[in-house]
Specification:
263 residues; alpha/beta; 9 helices; single chain; eight-stranded mixed beta sheet; binds 3-methylbut-3-enyl trihydrogen diphosphate
């Protein structure tokens, strides 16, 4: 059976220009695509981003206090729980057997190694039991006296993909894929070899205009490279426009997409 980790980007499911606003129509249409994929036998783990919930709360904390402290954890984790509850409600209303795993309760940041330690055992148990685990970018406490850290949904997607030996990781975003120049529609890169990521990153013009504490598309490419480099048979990664139902469905099913594939 095909195993997929699907990351729903924060800018896809929320309006990043407006604090605490969900794009409900979009979430509904995404949930419909997932429902169809699941009924065709796809096994999926869902990860969602922070968008105008987590990023907004994290940015406000940094603006007000200069940095994230342990006291930032309640505000940011609560913002993410709020978004997660809305997303979960859409899943459950569609009859999907989704179950939520908040990272602040299963992960710690190991600042010495700039990594995260998560106890995925219950999430994996849910997955093999036929449920749909849902997790999300979050703030997590640090170990050994270190401060808290933002764990992005991209980190979690790559970590979980390794755990479940996923066939594919699908990043559903609000753009068609990776462009050499986002202002030039003809510069969409349709496929990238994993080992070529560092070179390609030097050539790309990355836009940045919205508050994003986890570094957007460049951060995503780097994480894909770091997490998958060195793994002999790694999952295929698809970066696709999640607002286009047909494209999202094709990406989940492993069919040809108009987007960026990373092999
Ligand atoms: C960010 O998660 C989580 C917080 C800011 C708390 P992501 O990095 O996965 O979010 P998006 O997809 O960029 O919005």
């Amino acid at each position: 059976m095909r195993k997929v980790v699907l990351k729903l980007g924060g800018s896809l499911i929320t309006d990043k220009s407006k604090p605490f606003s969900v794009r409900s129509e979009r979430v509904l249409s995404i949930v419909e695509v997932i429902r169809e994929a699941v009924s065709s036998g796809i096994e999926v783990v869902i990860v969602h981003g922070g968008g105008s919930f987590g990023h907004f709360a994290a940015k406000s904390e940094i603006d007000e206090k200069g940095r994230l402290t342990n006291e930032s954890v309640p505000r940011i984790s609560d913002a993410m729980m709020e978004l997660n509850q809305i997303v979960m409600l859409h899943f459950l209303n569609a009859g999907l057997k989704a179950v939520s795993f908040p990272p602040h309760s299963i992960c710690l940041a190991s600042c010495q190694f700039s990594t995260f330690n998560c106890n995925f055992t219950p999430l994996l148990k849910a997955f093999v039991s036929g449920l749909i685990p849902v997790t999300f970018g979050d703030i997590v406490l640090g170990d050994n006296g270190c401060g808290p850290f933002i764990i992005s949904g991209d980190d979690l997607s790559m970590m979980i993909a390794r755990e479940i030996k996923a066939d594919s990781v699908v990043f559903a975003t609000d753009v068609d894929g990776v462009y050499r120049d986002p202002k030039d529609a003809s510069s969409l890169i349709s496929s990238i070899r994993l080992e070529d990521i560092p070179g390609i990153m030097k050539e790309i013009k990355f836009p940045s205009s919205v508050p994003d504490v986890t570094e957007g598309l460049p951060g995503k490419l780097l994480k894909i490279y770091r997490y998958l480099g060195g793994i002999s048979s790694h999952p295929v990664v698809a970066i696709v426009n999640g607002s286009l139902k047909g494209e999202l469905s094709a990406a989940i099913l492993g069919r040809k997409i108009r987007g960026t594939m990373i092999y």
